[in-house]
Amino acid sequence: MANIKSAKKRIKVIETKTLRNKMIKSKIKTLIKKLEAAVAANDKALADDTLKVVTSEIRKASSKGIFHKNTVSRKISRLTILVNKMA
Asked: Does the predicted model carry a pTM greater than 0.90?
C-alpha cells in the first residue's frame, strides 16, 4: 500500500477510471451481441438501427481513450460487413 498522499489519490483515481472503462466495454459487448442476434434472426431493419448505435458507442469509447483507434476501425468494419452481407 502506498504511503505518499499523492500515490493514494492516484490509486483511487485509477480504480474509478477502471470501473468506468469496464462499464463502457460491457455496454459495447452487449450491443454487439444484440447486433449479432439481429443478424442471426435476419432482421435487416433492427440490424441497421443497432449498427448505428454500436458504431456511435464505440467511437465515443475511442474518444475517451478506452479503445485504440485501430481497434475501433477493425470492430466497426467487421460489424458493418456482417450487416451488409444480409442484403
From this structure: no
Range of the domain at 67: 29-87
Q: Which three cell numbers stand for residue 52?
A: 448505428
Is 24 among the domain residues? Answer: no
One digit per residue, the tens of pLDDT, for the chain of length 87 reads: 789 999 999 999 999 999 999 999 999 999 999 999 999 999 999 999 999 999 999 999 999 999 999 999 999 999 999 999 987
* Residue the block writes with cell 481497434: 71
**DSSP element (H, E) containing 10:** helix 5-40
Residue 70 lies in a domain: yes
Cell numbers describing residue 80: 458493418
**Closest C-alpha among 38, 40, 74 to residue 58:** 74
As a whole number of angstroms, the distance between CA 39 and CA 17 comes to 33
